């Protein structure tokens, strides 16, 4: 039995299949952790969703920003595009979207010593807070008024955490931190504009990767995340970044996380 964590797929179905063949994935005994962004921009988003749905008992998923955009397009909150149109036009659309709406923003496994979120965990949150706030926005996705809530979420992000803010702004911060975060300032103010790799020039401006932010709340588990193709593969004692830019012609990466030594396997992407 093996547990493999995989970075952003974004509709790259053929690369996913080659990677799973390479790691000899067996859904009858193995488990996949997917770090969000299953769909959008890649050529076979529908096939990715249908395949993972068929394995749903063997797959653990956290939602990414592109997955939220798909859900929002289904509810008419955002425009669709040619890569997700096949999902919205599929006779299985209702089933697939309902399944996505029941996925997590944060997954925790104390036995393995890992947790997973698409963009990471806010420097403002310890693990207990992160679990509480992830559950809060997960429940919002499953309510009957999801369309109204999504419209409020997609108006703008919130870069600072403020317990005294409105319920909507708190939700915006929670959601933004789980699915959009990359950089932060010394005061934990998040920056959603910078999308490139960490550089000395950005550090001189006070911008650091969120996992290097000063006085970040301690998380006892190692955090798996994706979302940051320009960062690429990154591994230290605290985090494991797995978005290696398959969509951009780089690679799709899996990490085996149930053994003493993390095993890294990648396939090149067209």
Summarize the structure.
The protein contains 9 helices and 13 strands. The protein has helices at residues 13-22, 45-54, 65-74, 85-89, 93-101, 127-141, 146-153, 167-179, 200-204; strands spanning 3-6, 31-34, 59-61, 107-109, 114-116, 183-184, 190-191, 208-209, 222-225, 234-235, 239-241, 251-256, 263-268.
Task: Average the pLDDT over all residues and give the rounded result.
Answer: 95
Number of helices, where a helix is a run of at least 4 consecutive DSSP H or I residues: 9
Structural class: alpha/beta
CATH architecture: 4-Layer Sandwich
Key features of this structure:
16% strand; 9 helices; 5-stranded mixed sheet; 270 residues; Purple Acid Phosphatase, chain A, domain 2; 31% helix; alpha/beta; 13 strands
Question: How does this structure look, described?
Answer:
The mean pLDDT is 95. The longest helix has 15 residues, at 127-141. It contains 9 helices and 13 strands. The protein has a 5-stranded mixed β-sheet with strand order 3-2-1-12-13, with helices on one face. The relative contact order is 0.17. The protein has 270 residues and is of the alpha/beta class. Helix 6 (127-141) crosses helix 8 (167-179). Helices cover 31% and strands 16% of the residues. It has a single domain, classed as 4-Layer Sandwich (Purple Acid Phosphatase, chain A, domain 2). It has helices at 13-22, 45-54, 65-74, 85-89, 93-101, 127-141, 146-153, 167-179, 200-204; strands at 3-6, 31-34, 59-61, 107-109, 114-116, 183-184, 190-191, 208-209, 222-225, 234-235, 239-241, 251-256, 263-268. A hairpin with a 3-residue loop joins strand 10 (234-235) and strand 11.
């Amino acid at each position: 039995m093996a547990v493999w964590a995989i970075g952003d797929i974004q509709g790259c179905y053929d690369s996913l299949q080659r990677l799973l063949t390479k790691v000899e994935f067996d859904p009858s005994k193995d488990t996949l952790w997917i770090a969000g962004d299953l769909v959008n921009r890649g050529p076979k988003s529908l096939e990715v969703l249908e395949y993972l749905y068929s394995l749903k008992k063997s797959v653990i998923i956290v939602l990414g920003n592109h997955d939220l955009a798909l859900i929002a397009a289904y509810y008419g909150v955002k425009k669709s595009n040619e890569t997700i149109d096949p999902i919205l036009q599929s006779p299985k659309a209702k089933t697939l979207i309902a399944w996505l709406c029941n996925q997590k923003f944060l997954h925790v496994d104390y036995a393995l010593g890992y947790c997973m979120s698409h963009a990471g965990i806010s420097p403002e949150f310890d693990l207990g807070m992160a679990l509480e706030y992830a559950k809060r926005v997960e429940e919002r996705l499953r309510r009957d008024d999801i369309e109204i809530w999504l419209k409020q979420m997609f108006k703008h992000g919130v870069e600072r955490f403020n317990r005294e803010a409105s319920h909507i702004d708190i939700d915006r911060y929670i959601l933004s931190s789980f699915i959009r975060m990359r950089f932060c300032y010394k005061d934990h103010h998040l920056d959603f504009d910078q999308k490139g790799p960490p550089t000395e020039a950005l550090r001189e401006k006070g911008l650091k990767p969120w996992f290097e932010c000063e006085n970040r709340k301690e998380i006892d588990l190692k955090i798996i995340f994706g979302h940051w193709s320009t960062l690429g593969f990154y591994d230290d004692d605290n985090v494991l970044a797995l978005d290696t830019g398959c969509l951009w012609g780089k690679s799709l990466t899996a990490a085996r996380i149930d053994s003493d030594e993390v095993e890294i396997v990648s396939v090149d992407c067209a």
